[in-house]
Amino acid sequence: MQKMGKLYVVATPIGNLTDLSQRAQDVLSQVTWIAAEDTRHSLGLLQHLGIATPLVSYHEHNERERSLALIEKLMSGEDGALISDAGTPLISDPGYHLVQKAHEAGIQVVPIPGACAAIAALSASGLASAKFLFEGFLPAKSGRRKRLAQLKDFPATVIFYEAPHRVLELLEECCDEIGRERSACLAKEITKKFETIYSSSLENILARVRQGEIPLKGEFVLMIAPPAEKPESLSEVAEQIRILQILMAELPMKQAVQLAVKLTGHPKNALYELALEIQGKK
Asked: Which parts of the sequence belong to the Tetrapyrrole methylase domain (predicted)?
């Protein structure tokens, strides 16, 4: 039985060529072919690196049919690489169909990690990063405001990509649908000479863009923080104390807390702290 080739998903630089790892260069040199979003753009990168691997055009308009042809090559034993114009393939770029078909065919898919504008921007934004939602590009027209309204109360940082000619419109829509005071960060030209990362409220970011302090050129990443947690009201705390007092009169503290969690839905740690306070006052 003929051994199948491997598909390497290779991240490329988003602005600084030195961000390309040695491993990525080795893979691009050794594979039989490279599927590229824009072969003319990628040819410049390969020539700079001294890599002569043949390029195959693979973009959003031909990826379904081209995926089938590339799968045949991989099944015949050829190793191939998938790259996008910049950054990590499949992240708001073509590649999903090829990777999906490779898995269906039992072909090994190997990620070669590297630059990703969304992750790089988030890491430097100062916004909550334990959980986040990557939205990519919103629709050009219909559905934009509706989607933003749906995301208003999403409990994690939301990340958008946007073209420079639509950044102003996106910020205005976010102010209207999410709120002018919401914390956010606008990043542009990540890893490039004119890299800008500005964290403030949506209102302040919009003002700076309108005043021309943040030029509308290059690639943009907009990140919006989750809504601030609302402090519990005194009545809610009083109700928790009342429930704990009743339970602790009949049960050991540990069991009382466990039952209070089920009854109230509040976090165990918070109820345990209240139980300790109640016990200390006895």
From this structure: 6-205
